[in-house]
Amino acid sequence: MGNVNRVIFWVFIPSVLLFYIVFRVVEWQNYDDGGRQLISEQHALNLSVRDDIDCLILGGSNAVFSLSAEQMSNQSNLTCYNLSLLNEGFSDGAYFDFIRNLAIERTQIKSIFYSSVIPLTNTVFLDRLESNQSQIGISGDGRVKFQFTGRSLASYLKDFLQDKPPFQSLQYPMPTPSGDFNFDEFDGCQREKIRDEWIPVTIDEDFKQWLGDNLLTVSTLFPNANISFVLPSTLRSQLSEDDIGKFSDTLESEVVSNSAHYIAQSTFSDVSVLCDGTHHANANGREIRTSELLLLMQNR
């Protein structure tokens, strides 16, 4: 019995631990960007054959999923393109460099709708500042640090049995010719995974600096554009209307002080209009949110 225990202690347990560490290293080295780099290249290709764009949607995944440039173009006198990126390009420098290098006549852009959830969550804001320091690229490469925890081995086994490629994350579709998210090519909407956890940022000097720098960058890139900073629709069931109203008023003051317009969109009604997150609409929710944005734009 003693020999069995020694084998377990000195051979079996170290072997399992070594296997686990090696597996996590392989997982870390096989980072998959979910198609983000290819999506950015498709945007560049789309815009290289367009000379009629006078309106851009900027921002992160909230705008990727929940705003439609095609709908805005059809229902207004604007010709819009949705240039928002998942994770808002991971860092401000990477996102704005991507925009700066596109084949687009920036002086003919008359309207910018910059929609960001960063003001709505302190954790994301702090992560953004860290990503800016680390200069993470738009594919997110280098963002993922080695860690001992991760996807369960059972989930990898499930993928193997279903003949799915190992280490492949959720893949996002290529944008449409107007830059919109192509829901017809996406089957990843999972409302059961939605978690409604919003804690707005503290509008302190760090946030004011971030907001001012980004609005200045946008206005420099597009000197003839009217810039609207959009507080996007989210579910926000955990926040009272009074709290979000006070926060929105303070944010509006900061936006206006930076010579931009401010548009605050309403909360999503319920999860039936969402895809896989409280700020990610499905096709129906996108139509609703885009219609509201057009109405707010006309009434401001």
How would you explain this protein's 3D organization?
With 300 residues, the chain is an alpha/beta fold. Strand 6 and strand 7 (280-281) form a beta hairpin. The strands form two sheets. A five-stranded parallel sheet has the order 2-1-3-4-5, sandwiched between helices. Strands 6-7 form a two-stranded antiparallel ribbon. It has two domains: 1-30; 34-299, Rossmann fold (3-Layer(aba) Sandwich), CATH 3.40.50.1110. It has helices at residues 2-29, 36-48, 61-66, 69-74, 92-100, 122-134, 153-161, 205-221, 241-257, 283-299; strands spanning 55-59, 80-82, 111-115, 226-231, 261-264, 274-277, 280-281. 34% of the residues are buried. The longest helix has 28 residues, at 2-29.
Please state how the strands of the largest beta sheet are arranged side by side: 2-1-3-4-5
CATH class of the largest domain: Alpha Beta
Rounded to an integer, what's the Rg over CA atoms? Answer: 22 Å
Question: H/E element string?
Answer: HHEHHEHEHHHEHEEEH
Kindly identify the CATH topology of the largest domain.
Rossmann fold
The DSSP helix count reads 10
CATH superfamily of the largest domain: SGNH hydrolase
List low-pLDDT spans.
Answer: 19-31, 144-148
The average pLDDT score comes to 86
Largest sheet: 5 strands, parallel
What helical percentage do the residues reach?
40-55%
Query: How would the global form be characterised?
Result: globular
How far is the first residue's CA from the last residue's CA?
Answer: 81 Å
Strand pairing plus helix content: what structural class?
A: alpha/beta
Strand residue percentage: 5-15%
Q: What is the CATH architecture term of the largest domain?
A: 3-Layer(aba) Sandwich
Keywords: Membrane, Transmembrane, Transmembrane helix
Transmembrane segments: 7-26
